[in-house]
Amino acid sequence: MKITIIAGARPNFIKIAPIIKAINKKQSDGETISFRLVHTGQHYDKNLSDTFFEELNIPHPNANLEVKSGSQAEQTGAIMIAFEKELLQNPCDLVLVVGDVNSTMACAIVAKKMNVKVAHVEAGIRSGDMTMPEEINRIVTDSITDYFFTTSTSASDNLLKNGIESSNIHFVGNVMIDTLYQNLDRIFAPNFWKEFGLETGNYIILTLHRPSNVDEEKSLINLLEGIDEMVGDKKIIFPIHPRTKAILGETNLNLKNILFVEPQGYLNFMYLIKNSFAVITDSGGISEETTVLGIPCFTMRTTTERPETIEIGTNNLVGTSIENLTLEFTKFLQNGLPKKGIPELWDGKASERIIDILLKK
Ligand code: UDP
């Protein structure tokens, strides 16, 4: 079986790493399975791309479509045009896409129109929020996917409700958590650990990059000032996403606790998360990692496509206003964390399950 694996953005790199490992293992066991890795170039900053390939031992991509930035349509269109050429020149039995970025949807459409089977890893998750570009990518991708690999039974249920045959839905667990378990003994402190006086439990991690939180400069500044005020004497480490950085530009902010740092490599970032007091974020993936690590997480969104991180895990959906974040954060300071658990099958073996299933197809 020849599989073309698509990766375009930071969370994709983290998700494909264990899948490639699982394929390599099968190859060394004598199975006939091979892969071609296509990087669409959606994320191209060293900090968001190369570092992840190096740290997670992902092989150099066989092709880089180098689409770079653009509007939603420009980027999606550019990926489709380039990937069609790539797939014509390098036919395969299956295109495997992960997550919910533009590369996921664009490559799934191209493959399906060329009568190539599509496998979607992290299928079926839904926020119900059609203002999120990712939600549109999820719905479109799942409408043309052949093999659905899900992280939760609620994701599988969403697909069943959409009329997908149950025999094509495979609840396998979470590949992002495979990567976490495979690298926990490799994580290490970033250079600024000592310089900033960081110690386990004395700082908070902040990440913000969703358009709804960062695209309006005034409300972003209001949010940052509010968070800075809310945390008392805790330091806040803020690895700033390029999108957020571009909005803030050269703005001079008067913040006493927030320390801006570059987007972190995976091994430093996981060290920072694992040792933090709490996390404030609008990321989906991070709420899964904090769930497994038992770190309190405050998600600055009104919806989530990962309900298990709230029902079982440590995630707290607080909305996008500083008032509500402050209210929920204060409650947490008073009462602690109500419950902690790890969702079913988030055991580090999802990638192996995926490859086992694909080999039987
Ligand atoms: N991440 C990282 N360094 C950072 C910020 C995030 O390694 O500075 C990792 C994080 O641990 C998670 C992934 O990137 O595994 C999530 O990416 P992001 O928040 O960009 O995407 P989302 O999950 O929201 O789609």
UniProtKB/TrEMBL annotation:
<dbReference type="InterPro" id="IPR029767">
    <property type="entry name" value="WecB-like"/>
</dbReference>
<feature type="domain" description="UDP-N-acetylglucosamine 2-epimerase">
    <location>
        <begin position="31"/>
        <end position="358"/>
    </location>
</feature>
<comment type="similarity">
    <text>Belongs to the UDP-N-acetylglucosamine 2-epimerase family.</text>
</comment>
<dbReference type="InterPro" id="IPR003331">
    <property type="entry name" value="UDP_GlcNAc_Epimerase_2_dom"/>
</dbReference>
<dbReference type="Pfam" id="PF02350">
    <property type="entry name" value="Epimerase_2"/>
</dbReference>
<dbReference type="GO" id="GO:0016853">
    <property type="term" value="F:isomerase activity"/>
</dbReference>
<keyword id="KW-0413">Isomerase</keyword>
<protein>
    <submittedName>
        <fullName>UDP-N-acetylglucosamine 2-epimerase (Non-hydrolysing)</fullName>
    </submittedName>
</protein>
